[in-house]
């Protein structure tokens, strides 16, 4: 997906290198987590896959083709709450269908939104507004909105960072259940090693700026996974120690 990619930004007339010679392969239907120090270019990777901007050198490929414009095959979810406060749960979830899938008629659109509301456990809340929901419920709406038009790949930038530990564990379970159901490919940015290991098939550890991939580690834990129990797996402790040793060097 990324072949020898480097990215430099111009900030106040000065060059600011964000990424340097990054190679990253993401197989279809797999879950890849990106971890590393703040400012190492993890979010930049997502933005380039989404087609929001181009690399300074190298190539970003999607399905074998160079990404040269906005990539409509991906869904994007960030840490920021992006629900529209004047739209109901139902209307927030329907927004991508209105914008990206105009080929779907109103009846089918309504049915798909209703199915998604039930799938994320929000049946009965379709006419509620965001201000009437808890933080966890709002994240479920954001997740449903990203999934409703069935993108092939999900780009997720610390989507659960604002949640408490218990709700984050619940959302980990929901995310794994829904992405496995839709057989989606996921690229997930996080600062939390435990979160990365719990969710991912592969973890890529980045160096400090300019970001380079220091280590890629497969996570040999069978699916489906219980996001609570997996943290007590003997194999997880060893993997987390290995990854932390690599990451800690970049934080010193």
TrEMBL record:
GO molecular-function term, one example from the UniProt record: ATP binding
Matches recorded under InterPro entries: AAA+_ATPase, ABC_transporter-like_ATP-bd, ABC_transporter-like_CS, ABC_transporter_ATP-bind, P-loop_NTPase
Presence of the UniProt keyword Transport in the record: yes
SMART domains cross-referenced by the UniProt entry: AAA
The keyword Nucleotide-binding is assigned to this record: yes
Span of domain ABC transporter: 2-233
Alphabetical UniProt keywords: ATP-binding, Nucleotide-binding, Transport
SUPFAM superfamilies named among the record's database cross-references: P-loop containing nucleoside triphosphate hydrolases (SSF52540)
Stated family: Belongs to the ABC transporter superfamily.
Name of this chain's protein: ABC transporter ATP-binding protein
